[in-house]
Amino acid sequence: MLKIAYHPIYVLPLPKGHRFPMEKYELVPQQLLHEGTCTEENFFEPDFPDEADILAVHDKEYVEALKQQTLSYREARKIGLPLSKRLVEREFLIASGTIKAAEYALRYGIAMNVAGGTHHAYTNMGEGFCMFNDQAVAAKWLLRKGLSKKILMVDLDVHQGNGTAEIFAGDDSVFTFSMHGKNNYPFKKERSDLDIELENGIRDEEYLRILKQTLPKLIEKQKPDFIFYLSGVDILATDKLGKLACTEAGCKERDRFVLQTCHDLNIPVEVSMGGGYSPHIKNIVDAHANTFRLAQEIFF
Fold first, then answer.
1. Does residue 231 sit in helix, strand or coil?
2. So what's the pLDDT on residue 116?
3. CA 148, CA 152: separation in Å to the nearest integer?
4. Which of 7, 31, 93, 287 has its CB surrounded by the most CB atoms within 10 Å?
């Protein structure tokens, strides 16, 4: 059964005009239920994680500053969201949802988080709408529990997973792969184990050609026993914060290829949604919903 982390706290009010589309976290589950792709049984509400799981990735001083709301103005501004205790609670629950989804993926082959993909969070700071790096936390959890020995991070958000790259720099148990816009945020990038930088305006055919040439060879060489997939839909031509030119059909084919590859090779995969900032919320919801539809189609 497909298991999907969702908690009502994923949807918090933001100031009018804020460019972060918080409402997508409510609309995607509603759409999946409405069309019959999922039932209530597919969804689970994560509990608060053991703080030790967060501290396995993030510095204690940073975590305490978030909890106590004592970040400096500059530190808070880099995150880009209005800080509150509820927002920090939300980040804890997102990380917990990805841990639990990773556990479900070991059982069912795949599991997903409606939120997550917070790949700009470093060990000691947050930025770009990210405070805790949910997939890094879950990866460390799997390794600490002895449930995985080699993990592959497949980050196909339009923005480089700079925080993930920093967290796992020099860690041979986790291979970080990020395929992203060359001229997109973050403008000072970290070094992943493999970075593929894409020029502005790249379209479906070229994007998919590069991905399909890269991922199977990477899996063959690294031999991961678990994959984390960040399926940001900000590669769309309509995206306000991306500079690529992929269509919704191309984005769906990207997801199909990644998920089919994991299924065919019998490698468990956890999927977190990542970014999506098109002007019309319908474009964002449809593109994200495709990822869940494909998970059902391919795995179940």
1. coil
2. 97
3. 11
4. 287
H-helix segments, 120-274? 134-144, 162-167, 204-222, 248-264
Instruction: Choose among 119, 116, 100: nearest CA to 108.
Output: 100
Are 167 and 123 within 8 A, CB to CB?
yes
> CATH fold of 3-299, please?
Arginase; Chain A (3.40.800)
Average pLDDT, the chain: 97
Cβ atoms of 214 and 259 within 8 Å: the answer is no
Whole-angstrom distance, CA of residue 193 vs CA of residue 197: 13
* pLDDT single digits (tens) 235-259: 999 999 999 999 999 999 999 999 9
> pTM of the entire structure?
0.97
Specify the pLDDT at position 187. 87
φ/ψ region of 47 (left if φ > 0, alpha if ψ in -120 to 50, else beta) reads beta
Q: How far apart are CA 98 and CA 115, in angstroms?
A: 9
For 216, counting Cβ atoms within 10 Å of its Cβ (0-12 exposed, 13-18 middle, 19+ buried), the class is: middle
User: How confident is the model at residue 18, as a pLDDT?
Assistant: 82
